[in-house]
Amino acid sequence: MNAFNKLLRNKNVKLALGAIVVLGIIVIGVGMGGTNALTGAGGLAASEPTQTPSVTPEAPVESAPEEPSPTPTDTATAAPTATITPTPPPGIGSTTVSEIDGATLVYVPGGDFLMGSTGTHPDEQPQHIVSLDSFWIDQFEVTNTLYAQCVNAGSCEPPENVERFNDPTLANYAVVDVSWYNAGAYCAWAGRRLPTEAEWEKAARGTDGRLFPWGNALPASELLNFRNEFGAVEVGSYPNGVSPYGAHDMAGNVWEWVNDRYGETYYRTSPSVNPQGPEDGQDRVLRGGAWYSVTDNVRVTYRSWVHPTTRNYYFGFRCARAEFP
Fold first, then answer.
1. CB 132 within 8 Å of CB 199
2. Domains and CATH numbers, the chain
3. Of 26, 125, 229, 269, which sits with the fewest C-beta atoms within 10 Å of its C-beta?
4. Which residues of the chain fall short of a pLDDT of 70?
5. Can you list the alpha helix ranges (DSSP code H) found in the chain?
């Protein structure tokens, strides 16, 4: 060992050993790689490990959420729109039928008319202008057939002459032997009322101031039932004598109760709009004349009066109602 240590301390020996070590390393490198580690000739040069570029992932772009596709639903089929034909407003010549008693009514438009006369009867004076609302009035006098419905319903008393009332041959004749109260009860049951005196007169004469329902010609047998001894006839028997609004028998046949009390001087102070008659007085007014009347009594302005409880075989009536009940 001492000899070997001395050998290592010799400079030349150190160099030689270093060379041997280097050569050994080279040999080992050739044996392992088969290339010139210095020049790279005769093989692939050893390359550095390939750096895979790292890509920083972009933040995901948040897209707007998709709207959900509409789910098919059952679409309601619109019902066909009905075509509505407007009902024309009533006018002269219009009629309507009561749903209660089946009576036909004629229409009287609202407005002014000339009421009263300039003749010799003080209670018809002064002649004056009256304005009325529109109304409906029965086309015919109330008949025995119509009145019987009210009696059977228990809302009306039978007429005084029951035998005549129940005669089937007189079914379409004007009911008579009824008081003002009886007449009013029937109209109320039928959903109507007795006409006012002014309404009755306008329905009979219109707006031109005529003397009779048909005009100013004197009464004749083809126009009305008057000046005879045979009594009343079937309603509507004189179509040539109708009023301007189509109301029948407003002259002759039977007297007709109206709603107003009688006042001899009432026209002097009566309201010009929708007069209702005097507030006081016992008697009630009758209009139109009857089958026995003379010419003067069948004028549209003639006024008669009697106590409202009176019944007579030539007292009848017709009903009326406002345009919009």
1. yes
2. 95-322 (3.90.1580.10)
3. 229
4. 1-86, 325
5. 2-9, 11-33, 144-152, 162-166, 180-189, 197-205, 266-269
pTM of the model: 0.74
Cα dihedral sign, 78-83-87-93: negative
* Contact yes or no for 243/206 (Cβ under 8 A): yes
Length of the chain measured in residues: 325
pLDDT tens track for 110-139 = 999 999 999 889 999 999 999 999 999 999
What does the pLDDT look like over 64-81, one tens digit per residue?
445 445 444 444 455 555
Give the whole-angstrom CA distance, residue 200 versus residue 194: 9
DSSP annotation of 154 reads T
CB-CB contact of 244 with 282 (8 Å):
no
Determine contact, residues 106/91, Cβ cutoff 8 Å: no
